[in-house]
Amino acid sequence: MLRLTVIQDIISPVKNNKFFIEEDFVIDQQVKDGQICVNIHYKYDNSLYFNMVVSIDFSNKASAIAQVSPGIIIKTQSIAIKELSDAKYQLSNWLIRLEEEMKLMPLERKVFEHEDKIRKWEEVFEEVPDKYFTKQEAENLIERLEKLEKELHQKIENTVDPNLNIESELDKIHSDMSSLKEQIQILSRKNWMSSFLARALNWANRNPGTIRGIVEGTKGLLPDEVSSKIPNEIVELLVPEEN
């Protein structure tokens, strides 16, 4: 198995990406047939991945072969990585291609496989039809996201937490909101809500004091058939427990 520091260096482009967040991916490594495999899957669609088989020679020089989707030109492609230090460069390029691919997908195309639902939220969204937002729903949702972003900004700008980098936090939230707006045109309702709640949970974890007062606002982004039936569950999921 690769050392944790090596893995963290390889996946650093995921952590620093402005369109995706780390929780959008399933990342693991395993040893198979004596070879080290590093697998990075886009959580909402298993056909989008960056899988790498690492080889280490007798001089401890590491190289790899990556199977990626989307590829540079074709849907799936093998890429030779002569030095393991170049892996994060290839991963960064893959993230760029993945973002471009998602933005170019037509709205009517089924973007994600039904079996790849986010397990964490599937009980909460069990009764939500797995269909796409209508044009009117998308427009209303974008307006509510913009309103929520303003509320978050006001709360964070007024915080007295000396450990909070306000400018950095506002930038992260703006990036999250921009991604969510793009995803409205791409993801089904169920998958979009999973993506939204993953980000909302991150906001709550980073800002437990400031987020607590506007948790009810996040519920307003969910369809009526969901928010009217599970208000307590959503509040408990978004608000961290106090020590």
Describe the overall structure.
Residues 131-190 form a coiled coil. Keywords: Coiled coil. The protein is of the alpha+beta class and 243 residues long. It has two domains: 4-104, no CATH class; 118-238, no CATH class. The protein has ten helices and five strands, in the order ααβββββαααααααα. The chain has helices at 4-10, 12-15, 87-104, 135-157, 166-184, 189-206, 208-211, 215-219, 224-227, 231-238; strands at residues 25-32, 35-42, 49-56, 62-69, 77-81. The chain has a five-stranded antiparallel sheet with strand order 1-2-3-4-5, covered by helices on one side. A hairpin with a 5-residue loop joins strand 3 (49-56) and strand 4. Helix 4 packs antiparallel against helix 5 (166-184). The longest helix is centred in the middle third of the chain and has 23 residues, at 135-157. Mean pLDDT is 78; it is low at 106-118 and 239-243.
